[in-house]
Hints:
The protein has 210 residues and is α/β, with parallel strands linked by helices. The protein contains twelve helices and five strands. It has a five-stranded parallel sheet, with helices on both faces. The longest helix is centred in the C-terminal third of the chain and has 14 residues, at 175-188. Pfam families: GerE (PF00196), Response_reg (PF00072).
Amino acid sequence: MNKRVLLVDNHPLVRFGTASFLIEQGCHIVGEAEDGAQALLMAEELKPNWVILDIALPKLNGLQVLYHLLAADWPVNIIVFTGQELKHYVNACIQAGACGFVRKTAPLASLMCAMESAAMGHVWLPASRVQGIRGEQASPHSLTHRISDRERKVISLLLQGKSNNEISQILNRSPKTTSAQKKSVLQKLNVSSIAELISVTTINRRMNPL
């Protein structure tokens, strides 16, 4: 199968090194994107059958890009290639439909191993994650029972990309109240950003927005 690859990473040196390696392995690099929005535009135009995707991207984070790409009308295999260490990301990416998860600290050869594994219908995970991943998948469930209905509404709007002021207007609350509820949600779920919030809600299907 001809590997037509779109690289998505906001670090030019990472893209250069990764592209050089993949070209040596016989892959065809059809394009390089430096942010999530550009990645979606290029993917729609170029129709790659492989995407090497970082998580920490400007404009749209990697998880949002992943969801959009897997809903596309052409077959695409996505390998997450990231320096992010939080355990939530592995589970979220795989459950969302990624073919593999490779840390940037791993040898570049791991990328080809992940692609070859995916081509055979398998999911590639870091060796250190395989043993504990099942237990980790269940961990968010012990947290979400603490989320109130009001906080769930805040989560729903945050995942839609709404700002604190917009949420305050929609829910008819003061910005101070909204900010406090947002902080409370992030603390309860043990996350520090909207990207991490997305990953946790992806893992935990009980947290569908109200």
